[in-house]
């Protein structure tokens, strides 16, 4: 299956018309609503946006909405079920929209994972996050600073406060103006949100976001409510990433 007439998507990533194939990665099978892009789980502009069920080593690992114009993911969705320690894994080199060459010698930028390896339940899931359809150009000190600390904090919340250490997470990138190697859009902002049922039967959720710029040391991202995550100015009005039970902290 060709995305742009040049690069062929690898077999492990399955492009689908709707996310129904991998609905288990979304809270109550509720797909984010992004008017004009994703409605009722269906891609509206299928020439540009691709719904990908990330399939690796015999099972679906997570889901991604991918923007072939900007050559970065819009978001990745995952059901967190606990973690195990994984060794550092080299980024998988697949002939995706963005290529490994796009990220070589890119001073100041990391290959920023939307779904991070830290959330992986096992080695195969950790490996699956290294596909370039889950990666954006991310400023090194942002990725390794406040963003990394936030990811570690969210893992602790999901492990300790969520029933059976199970939670749903969405991680996204907002396109900016700059490009890496004149091809790959550099996000201006990145965001993440989680939602789970607690051990007491209540719903718990939270959201974080940060700007993809050089940052000073010891910056911390503050947890906000999902309702406070403002994406409407970058996408459209009427956007909703989680169902109603997740819209309070």
UniProtKB/TrEMBL annotation:
Record domain DNA/RNA non-specific endonuclease/pyrophosphatase/phosphodiesterase: where: 58-248
Domain (ENPP1-3/EXOG-like endonuclease/phosphodiesterase): residue spans on this chain: 59-248
Highest taxon above the source species: Eukaryota
Record InterPro entries: DNA/RNA_non-sp_Endonuclease_sf (IPR044929), Endo_G_ENPP1-like_dom (IPR001604), ENDOD1 (IPR039015), ENPP1-3/EXOG-like_nuc-like (IPR020821), His-Me_finger_sf (IPR044925)
SMART domains noted in UniProt: Endonuclease_NS, NUC
GO molecular function list: hydrolase activity; metal ion binding; nucleic acid binding
Pfam family, one: Endonuclease_NS
Designated name of the protein: Si:ch211-133n4.10
Species this chain originates from: Scleropages formosus
The organism's taxonomic lineage, starting at the top: Eukaryota, Metazoa, Chordata, Craniata, Vertebrata
